[in-house]
Amino acid sequence: MGLTRILLATATLALIGACNDATPPGETNSDIRGRVVDALGQPVAGASVVLQYATTPPMTGKQDKPQTSIEFGLRETGHAAVWISDYCDGSILRWLADGDFPAGTSAITWDGLDDEGRILPDGAYQCHVVTDDGERAWTLLLLFQEYGGFAADAAVAPLAVTDHRGRFTLAQVCLPFGYVYAVDNGLGDIVEVFTINRDVRVWAFGAAAGARGSSAAVTVDPDAGAYVTVTLDP
Predict the structure, then answer these.
(1) How confident is the model at residue 61 (pLDDT cuts 50, 70, 90)?
(2) How far out from the chain centre does Cα 122 lie?
(3) In percent, how much of the chain has pLDDT > 70?
């Protein structure tokens, strides 16, 4: 698996409204849309489409292991459930724990995968911890996947899948554009603040092992969206 950074977010996700696929004539389609083709220019059906984000200022330095530690405390031995959900619709993506834990602090590691063992793409996710003492939830931000460095047999959870014409549509409504988060020094002092800007690269993965490709960097307009073509490597 490629290089990844998983950070705890400290600000609110700015959601942007999107149009339906059937945009009325004369109105602007704000979706990210495009097509995926092979080296001969033929459409690729069933390709998984994900995004790679950029930040302002640019983030430098990446961690070798795509994981983060989730800690929670119990006043006495009791039950705890921990899971990762989709930020937008709350659907459960990964169960991390559902059982009894001793009194005190416990820690569980999330490796950035879903329950099917697929790599979750860059984006915002919700972490939930429910214990006998109550419930809490917070946002986790997953950045940056080195999609080009994934193993040939790596399975990636898609944001969109191409149709029989090789086309895809991805609404902006739950994408983390404008997300602001801070990094502290471990003592509570903020040392860096980053914002996810609107520059993305669109990546696609075909059914054949190792078939992948990406678009050039493109700026997604809040109203007009963006259109890209992704060519898969043989």
Answers:
(1) low
(2) 3
(3) 85
Give, for 124, the enclosing helix (H) or strand (E).
strand 123-131
Q: Report, at the CATH architecture level, how domain 5-231 is classified.
A: Sandwich (2.60)
Q: How far is CA 184 from CA 59, 86, 108, 161, 191, in A?
A: 14, 25, 21, 37, 5
Written as six digits, the tokens of 138 are 């917070």
Q: Is residue 229 classed as helix, strand or coil in its secondary structure?
A: strand
Cα distance from N-terminal residue to C-terminal residue, the chain: 20
Return all residues near 158 (Cβ < 8 A) that are at least 6 apart: 48, 49, 50, 121, 205
- The full set of domain ranges for the chain reads 5-231
Residue 73 and residue 76: Cα distance in Å, rounded?
A: 9
Contact 200, 50 (CB under 8 A): no
Peptide bond into 158 cis (omega under 30): no
